[in-house]
Write a structure and sequence with these properties.
The chain is mainly alpha-helical. It is built from five helices and no strands.
């Protein structure tokens, strides 16, 4: 028996719905950019973001947040994530309690 592929289209959205989604996405990008700048400047600590992430950070990659921390490059960030058994594609909101605790404990050393 041959399985047929069914094409599924995204639901049709009105112009207002699309504009609202675009506005929300832009707002999230602006807030994340400011957070990364604050991390780079040292006015915000990564531990607080990992333990209690704001809503706009929950879909951001942990790797990207680590890259914003001073003295962290791609190699050091990847090594830290590997040490905690966390995928580089993992989002901040998708971290388990164990993973959060391990990451924060490594920062507090």
């Amino acid at each position: 028996m041959v399985a047929s592929k069914i094409q599924v289209q995204a639901p049709a959205r009105s112009l207002d719905q699309r504009m609202e989604a675009l506005k929300r996405a832009n707002d999230i990008r602006v807030r994340r950019a400011q957070l990364k700048k604050d991390l780079k400047d040292g006015t915000v600590q990564i531990e607080g973001i990992l333990l209690d992430p704001p809503e706009y950070v929950s879909t951001a990659k942990v790797f990207d947040m680590l890259m914003a921390v001073p003295k962290f490059g791609s190699v050091k960030a990847a090594r830290l994530l590997n040490q905690c058994r966390i995928s580089q594609s993992k989002t901040v909101g998708g971290l388990s309690d164990r993973q959060r605790a391990e990451l924060v404990s490594l920062f507090n050393r």
